[in-house]
């Protein structure tokens, strides 16, 4: 559970900072409207220490509240960054109020405009609006985890070319077929939903048992999955001296859709997936977001 919170740190910090900034903007506006004298830098040191401690305590409470929300409503975790971003944007720029004032609309119209703008913001961030534009984002991630299994047992989980798919670390791996005439290439399919598969061609770049495995992958590109499955994966294994294995993985996906790259970044997806693998390898509960999504996919298929 604590590893899950750690992997969600970017989302939680983003939400905490933006909500605190929203409160600061709103508080400043109320001070100005009520003509209350603001604290200045010439104030007593004790005043600033009190203000600093208050910010730290309130920030900690907000962070804890968001962490609890993510733990309970894991499928709705993206709400954290969407709502916090929208609240700061709405509080600082007040687009709904300005539009209502511009056209002389009643208060009810202001609420409707605010909801419409929020939905539009959500569509831009995690919807398909930006998919129409010809640009993508590269996503690179490098993470290390400790797996409490000997290196000889961990190697088959990553060396797909040598050990097959039975022990693979990705739960949704469905099928692996060698490419005729290309001994280092394999056609791989991943289960994404009921009768829905993501197909890749993986070409082995390095395979030094049991310490190093690397491959390049590219997917079947069409209108629905363009810029989703092109990149490289590299993993290095080394004994930790305590009957365990240190797994260092590097994942690079090229020209991804912005919404997909953003989701992977907030989830710290590579670290999250490796945490899930490490937990399953020692028979512990898999708290990772990746594990949750894979279990859901497998249950529906």
Provide the succession of SSEs: HHHHHHEHHEEEEEEHHH
Describe the main β-sheet briefly. 7 strands, antiparallel
Number of H- or I-type helical stretches: 11
Give the low-confidence spans: none
Distance between the termini: 27 Å
Strand segment tally? 7
> Spatial order of the strands in the main sheet?
1-7-6-5-4-3-2
Helix-strand category: alpha+beta
**Percent helix:** 40-55%
Mean pLDDT over the full residue set: 85
Report the portion of residues in β strands.
15-25%
Query: Which shape, going by the Cα principal axes?
Result: globular
Rg over C-alpha atoms, rounded to the nearest angstrom: 24 Å
Describe the structure.
The chain is an alpha+beta fold and about 300 residues long. About 20% of the residues are buried. The mean pLDDT is about 85. Strands 1-7-6-5-4-3-2 form a 7-stranded antiparallel sheet. The chain is globular, with a radius of gyration of 24 Å. Helix 2 (about 10-35) runs parallel beside helix 4. Strand 4 (about 195-210) and strand 5 form a beta hairpin. Helices cover about 50% and strands about 25% of the residues. It has helices at about 1-5, 10-35, 45-70, 80-95, 95-105, 105-125, 150-160, 160-165, 260-265, 270-280, 290-300; strands at about 135-145, 175-180, 180-195, 195-210, 210-220, 230-240, 245-255. The longest helix has 28 residues, at about 45-70. It starts with a helix and ends with a helix.
Question: Layout of helices and strands, plus pairs?
Answer:
Elements lengths: L1 H6 L1 H25 L11 H28 L6 H15 L1 H9 L3 H20 L10 E11 L3 H8 L1 H4 L9 E7 L2 E12 L2 E13 L3 E8 L10 E10 L5 E12 L1 H10 L1 H13 L7 H12 L1
Antiparallel strand pairs: 1-7, 2-3, 3-4, 4-5, 5-6, 6-7
